[in-house]
Amino acid sequence: MKPLKSKLGVKRTVTENATAVLIGKKPIMNYVLACITFFHGGAKEVSIKARGRSISRAIDVAEVVRHRFLPDVKIKSIGIGTDQFLPQDQDDATQGATNVSTIEIKLMR
Amino acid sequence: MKPLKSKLGVKRTVTENATAVLIGKKPIMNYVLACITFFHGGAKEVSIKARGRSISRAIDVAEVVRHRFLPDVKIKSIGIGTDQFLPQDQDDATQGATNVSTIEIKLMR
Fold first, then answer.
1. pLDDT tens per residue, chain B (109 residues)?
2. Under an 8 A CB cutoff, do A80 and B62 touch?
3. Is the full-model pTM beyond 0.90?
4. Are B63 and A81 within 8 A, CB to CB?
5. Which among B59, B99, B102 has the least Cβ separation from residue A80?
6. Cβ atoms of B19 and B73 closer than 8 Å
7. ipTM of the complex
Protein backbone atom coordinates (compact mmCIF):
# COMPACT_ATOMS: atom_id res chain seq x y z
CA MET A 1 0.00 0.00 0.00
CA LYS A 2 2.37 2.68 -1.21
CA PRO A 3 1.16 6.29 -1.24
CA LEU A 4 1.11 7.60 -4.79
CA LYS A 5 1.65 11.20 -5.73
CA SER A 6 -0.36 12.55 -8.61
CA LYS A 7 0.67 15.33 -10.95
CA LEU A 8 -1.14 17.81 -8.69
CA GLY A 9 0.90 16.59 -5.74
CA VAL A 10 -2.11 15.10 -3.98
CA LYS A 11 -1.29 12.07 -1.85
CA ARG A 12 -3.51 9.11 -2.61
CA THR A 13 -3.63 5.58 -1.26
CA VAL A 14 -5.09 2.67 -3.16
CA THR A 15 -5.94 -0.65 -1.60
CA GLU A 16 -8.09 -3.40 -3.09
CA ASN A 17 -11.51 -1.90 -2.48
CA ALA A 18 -10.98 1.41 -0.75
CA THR A 19 -9.21 4.55 -1.85
CA ALA A 20 -8.13 7.49 0.27
CA VAL A 21 -7.39 11.15 -0.38
CA LEU A 22 -5.30 12.85 2.30
CA ILE A 23 -6.12 16.54 2.63
CA GLY A 24 -3.23 18.99 3.03
CA LYS A 25 -2.76 22.64 2.28
CA LYS A 26 -3.29 22.67 -1.48
CA PRO A 27 -6.29 24.30 -3.19
CA ILE A 28 -9.43 22.24 -2.64
CA MET A 29 -9.98 21.64 -6.35
CA ASN A 30 -6.83 19.49 -6.43
CA TYR A 31 -8.41 17.15 -3.90
CA VAL A 32 -11.81 17.31 -5.59
CA LEU A 33 -10.16 16.21 -8.83
CA ALA A 34 -8.42 13.34 -7.04
CA CYS A 35 -11.78 12.11 -5.70
CA ILE A 36 -13.47 12.40 -9.08
CA THR A 37 -10.60 10.54 -10.73
CA PHE A 38 -11.03 7.68 -8.27
CA PHE A 39 -14.76 7.44 -8.92
CA HIS A 40 -14.28 7.62 -12.68
CA GLY A 41 -11.70 4.85 -12.32
CA GLY A 42 -14.38 2.60 -10.92
CA ALA A 43 -13.99 3.10 -7.18
CA LYS A 44 -17.16 2.47 -5.18
CA GLU A 45 -15.85 4.23 -2.12
CA VAL A 46 -13.45 7.12 -1.53
CA SER A 47 -12.23 8.10 1.89
CA ILE A 48 -11.28 11.74 2.57
CA LYS A 49 -8.94 12.10 5.52
CA ALA A 50 -7.67 15.22 7.25
CA ARG A 51 -6.07 16.39 10.47
CA GLY A 52 -6.16 19.64 12.43
CA ARG A 53 -6.85 22.79 10.46
CA SER A 54 -7.23 20.87 7.20
CA ILE A 55 -10.47 19.38 8.53
CA SER A 56 -12.65 22.20 7.23
CA ARG A 57 -11.04 21.77 3.82
CA ALA A 58 -11.94 18.06 3.87
CA ILE A 59 -15.61 18.99 4.31
CA ASP A 60 -15.33 21.55 1.51
CA VAL A 61 -13.97 18.80 -0.76
CA ALA A 62 -16.79 16.39 0.12
CA GLU A 63 -19.42 19.07 -0.44
CA VAL A 64 -18.01 20.18 -3.80
CA VAL A 65 -17.71 16.59 -5.06
CA ARG A 66 -21.30 15.80 -4.05
CA HIS A 67 -23.06 18.98 -5.07
CA ARG A 68 -21.16 20.25 -8.07
CA PHE A 69 -19.72 17.20 -9.82
CA LEU A 70 -21.15 13.84 -8.76
CA PRO A 71 -24.73 14.13 -7.46
CA ASP A 72 -25.03 10.33 -7.18
CA VAL A 73 -22.28 10.25 -4.56
CA LYS A 74 -23.54 9.87 -0.99
CA ILE A 75 -21.87 10.18 2.38
CA LYS A 76 -21.43 6.69 3.77
CA SER A 77 -20.04 7.69 7.14
CA ILE A 78 -18.15 10.41 8.98
CA GLY A 79 -15.77 9.57 11.78
CA ILE A 80 -13.77 11.80 14.07
CA GLY A 81 -10.84 10.97 16.30
CA THR A 82 -7.66 12.17 17.94
CA ASP A 83 -4.04 11.55 16.97
CA GLN A 84 -1.42 11.91 19.68
CA PHE A 85 2.11 13.08 19.07
CA LEU A 86 4.74 12.48 21.74
CA PRO A 87 7.69 14.81 22.09
CA GLN A 88 10.81 13.17 20.67
CA ASP A 89 12.85 13.19 23.89
CA GLN A 90 10.27 11.32 26.00
CA ASP A 91 8.44 8.29 24.75
CA ASP A 92 6.78 6.91 27.89
CA ALA A 93 4.26 9.40 29.29
CA THR A 94 1.33 11.08 27.63
CA GLN A 95 2.39 14.17 29.52
CA GLY A 96 3.45 16.82 27.07
CA ALA A 97 1.80 14.96 24.21
CA THR A 98 0.15 17.03 21.50
CA ASN A 99 -3.34 16.06 20.45
CA VAL A 100 -4.68 16.76 17.01
CA SER A 101 -8.22 16.03 15.84
CA THR A 102 -8.85 13.96 12.74
CA ILE A 103 -11.75 13.37 10.40
CA GLU A 104 -12.53 10.65 7.89
CA ILE A 105 -15.38 11.18 5.43
CA LYS A 106 -16.34 8.11 3.42
CA LEU A 107 -18.06 8.82 0.13
CA MET A 108 -19.78 6.09 -1.86
CA ARG A 109 -21.69 5.91 -5.11
CA MET B 1 -35.96 29.94 21.08
CA LYS B 2 -33.75 32.84 22.02
CA PRO B 3 -29.98 32.38 21.91
CA LEU B 4 -28.52 32.84 25.37
CA LYS B 5 -25.09 34.20 26.09
CA SER B 6 -23.19 32.71 28.99
CA LYS B 7 -20.60 34.47 31.08
CA LEU B 8 -17.91 33.11 28.83
CA GLY B 9 -19.65 34.63 25.83
CA VAL B 10 -20.52 31.26 24.32
CA LYS B 11 -23.78 31.27 22.36
CA ARG B 12 -26.14 28.52 23.40
CA THR B 13 -29.60 27.57 22.27
CA VAL B 14 -32.05 25.64 24.44
CA THR B 15 -35.19 24.01 23.12
CA GLU B 16 -37.29 21.41 24.89
CA ASN B 17 -35.13 18.37 24.36
CA ALA B 18 -32.10 19.48 22.41
CA THR B 19 -29.36 21.95 23.20
CA ALA B 20 -26.85 23.50 20.84
CA VAL B 21 -23.41 25.06 21.24
CA LEU B 22 -22.34 27.30 18.37
CA ILE B 23 -18.58 27.27 17.86
CA GLY B 24 -16.85 30.58 17.16
CA LYS B 25 -13.34 31.88 17.67
CA LYS B 26 -13.01 31.61 21.44
CA PRO B 27 -10.69 29.14 23.20
CA ILE B 28 -12.04 25.61 22.92
CA MET B 29 -12.32 25.17 26.71
CA ASN B 30 -15.12 27.77 26.77
CA TYR B 31 -17.16 25.57 24.44
CA VAL B 32 -16.18 22.40 26.29
CA LEU B 33 -17.46 23.96 29.51
CA ALA B 34 -20.72 24.93 27.82
CA CYS B 35 -21.26 21.32 26.72
CA ILE B 36 -20.44 19.93 30.16
CA THR B 37 -22.81 22.44 31.76
CA PHE B 38 -25.61 21.24 29.50
CA PHE B 39 -25.00 17.58 30.34
CA HIS B 40 -24.75 18.32 34.07
CA GLY B 41 -28.03 20.22 33.77
CA GLY B 42 -29.71 17.03 32.62
CA ALA B 43 -29.48 17.31 28.83
CA LYS B 44 -29.48 13.97 27.05
CA GLU B 45 -28.21 15.42 23.81
CA VAL B 46 -25.95 18.35 22.93
CA SER B 47 -25.43 19.55 19.39
CA ILE B 48 -22.13 21.20 18.46
CA LYS B 49 -22.45 23.40 15.38
CA ALA B 50 -19.75 25.20 13.41
CA ARG B 51 -19.12 26.83 10.06
CA GLY B 52 -16.03 27.34 7.92
CA ARG B 53 -12.71 27.45 9.73
CA SER B 54 -14.33 26.86 13.11
CA ILE B 55 -15.13 23.30 12.03
CA SER B 56 -11.84 21.87 13.25
CA ARG B 57 -12.46 23.56 16.61
CA ALA B 58 -15.88 21.87 16.81
CA ILE B 59 -14.20 18.48 16.50
CA ASP B 60 -11.62 19.46 19.12
CA VAL B 61 -14.49 20.32 21.48
CA ALA B 62 -16.27 17.01 20.89
CA GLU B 63 -13.04 15.05 21.41
CA VAL B 64 -12.11 16.88 24.63
CA VAL B 65 -15.63 16.46 26.08
CA ARG B 66 -15.64 12.75 25.28
CA HIS B 67 -12.12 11.77 26.22
CA ARG B 68 -11.17 14.09 29.04
CA PHE B 69 -14.36 14.93 30.90
CA LEU B 70 -17.38 12.75 30.12
CA PRO B 71 -16.36 9.25 28.97
CA ASP B 72 -20.01 8.12 28.94
CA VAL B 73 -20.82 10.61 26.19
CA LYS B 74 -21.07 9.08 22.71
CA ILE B 75 -21.31 10.57 19.26
CA LYS B 76 -24.87 10.16 18.05
CA SER B 77 -24.37 11.53 14.57
CA ILE B 78 -22.22 13.84 12.48
CA GLY B 79 -23.71 15.81 9.62
CA ILE B 80 -22.07 18.10 7.11
CA GLY B 81 -23.63 20.65 4.80
CA THR B 82 -23.23 23.91 2.94
CA ASP B 83 -24.59 27.36 3.78
CA GLN B 84 -24.94 29.83 0.93
CA PHE B 85 -24.52 33.55 1.28
CA LEU B 86 -25.82 35.82 -1.47
CA PRO B 87 -24.20 39.17 -2.14
CA GLN B 88 -26.40 41.94 -0.77
CA ASP B 89 -26.99 43.74 -4.06
CA GLN B 90 -28.38 40.72 -5.91
CA ASP B 91 -30.84 38.34 -4.37
CA ASP B 92 -31.99 36.22 -7.32
CA ALA B 93 -29.11 34.23 -8.76
CA THR B 94 -26.76 31.81 -7.08
CA GLN B 95 -24.04 33.40 -9.20
CA GLY B 96 -21.57 35.15 -6.98
CA ALA B 97 -22.88 33.32 -3.93
CA THR B 98 -20.38 32.36 -1.28
CA ASN B 99 -20.50 28.80 0.00
CA VAL B 100 -19.36 27.86 3.45
CA SER B 101 -19.25 24.32 4.83
CA THR B 102 -20.98 23.46 8.07
CA ILE B 103 -20.82 20.63 10.58
CA GLU B 104 -23.16 19.44 13.31
CA ILE B 105 -21.91 16.92 15.84
CA LYS B 106 -24.58 15.45 18.07
CA LEU B 107 -23.37 14.12 21.39
CA MET B 108 -25.54 11.97 23.63
CA ARG B 109 -25.14 10.28 26.98
1. 455 666 667 777 666 556 899 999 999 999 999 999 999 999 999 999 999 999 999 999 999 999 999 999 999 999 999 998 887 765 555 567 889 999 999 999 9
2. yes
3. no
4. yes
5. B59
6. no
7. 0.80
